[in-house]
TrEMBL record:
Its EC number is 3.6.1.9. The record marks 12, 81, 163 as: Important for substrate specificity. GO terms for molecular function: dTTP diphosphatase activity; UTP diphosphatase activity. This is dTTP/UTP pyrophosphatase. Keywords: Cytoplasm, Hydrolase, Nucleotide metabolism. It catalyses: UTP + H2O = UMP + diphosphate + H(+); dTTP + H2O = dTMP + diphosphate + H(+). Nucleoside triphosphate pyrophosphatase that hydrolyzes dTTP and UTP. May have a dual role in cell division arrest and in preventing the incorporation of modified nucleotides into cellular nucleic acids.
Length: 199
C-alpha cells in the first residue's frame, strides 16, 4: 500500500510517521462524533486493559468513518497513550490546576507509559502495546507551575510531553522514547509491514 490513514489528531504521531517515511492521509472524527467519550475509563479498569480497549475503539470508529466517507481503501492506524502511577490512570488534565496536581504526583517517582497501536487492514485489526518506565526527578512547586503555565501539558496524558520542556524533569527512561511520545516506532513499523505498507 502506498499510504495509510492516520486516525489521530496528535501532531507528534504525524511527526513520528514522517520520521519512518510513511505517507499518510488524516482520517479525523467528524463534528458529530464524540471522540473524547471513547477515552472514558471504566470502573476498576486496569491501565493495560484500558489502553488496548480505547485503541481498538478508536480503530473501529475510524473504520466506520472511512466507510461513511466513501474514501479509497487503505490501512488505518489508531493509537492511544496513557500514563499510570501505582495502577492509577493519569489522563489528560481537565485544567491547569489538575495538571499541577498530576505533575506533583509524578514528582520524584517512577511511572509507566503505555502506548497501544492498532493497524486495520483486510478486515482485521492488529494491535501491539509498548510499555515504558519514566523516572522524574523531584520537582519544586514553582517549577511545576512554570511548566504548566507554558501550556504544554494541555491535552497530554500525564500532563507532560517528553519531547518538550518536560524533558528537564526526566532522570531516565527504560523503554521506547517514541512510545512515550505517542507512537512506538518499532512496533508500529512491524504492524505496518504486516499490513503490506510500503515505506
Amino acid at each position: 500500500m502506498p499510504y495509510i490513514y492516520l486516525a489521530s489528531q496528535s501532531p507528534r504521531r504525524q511527526e513520528l510517521l514522517q520520521q519512518l517515511g510513511v505517507r499518510f492521509e488524516m482520517l479525523l472524527p467528524a463534528a458529530h462524533e464524540d471522540a473524547e467519550a471513547l477515552e472514558a475509563v471504566l470502573p476498576g479498569e486496569p491501565p493495560d486493559d484500558y489502553v488496548q480497549r480505547v485503541t481498538r475503539a478508536k480503530a473501529e470508529a475510524a473504520i466506520a468513518r472511512l466507510a461513511r466517507a466513501g474514501l479509497p481503501g487503505a490501512p488505518i492506524l489508531a493509537a492511544d497513550t496513557t500514563v499510570c502511577l501505582d495502577g492509577t490512570i493519569l489522563g489528560k488534565p481537565f485544567d491547569d490546576a489538575d495538571a499541577c496536581a498530576v505533575l506533583a504526583r509524578l514528582s520524584g517517582t517512577r511511572h509507566r507509559v503505555l502506548t497501544a497501536v492498532a493497524v486495520c487492514a483486510d478486515g482485521q485489526i492488529h494491535q501491539a502495546v509498548n510499555i515504558s518506565h519514566v523516572w522524574f526527578r523531584p520537582m519544586r512547586r514553582e517549577e511545576i507551575e512554570r511548566y504548566v503555565a507554558s501550556g504544554e501539558p494541555r491535552g497530554k496524558a500525564g500532563a507532560y510531553g517528553i519531547q518538550g520542556r518536560a524533558a528537564e524533569f526526566v532522570l531516565r527512561i527504560d523503554g521506547s522514547y517514541s512510545g512515550i511520545m505517542g507512537l512506538p516506532l518499532c512496533e508500529t513499523a512491524a504492524l505496518l509491514r504486516q499490513a503490506g505498507v510500503d515505506f
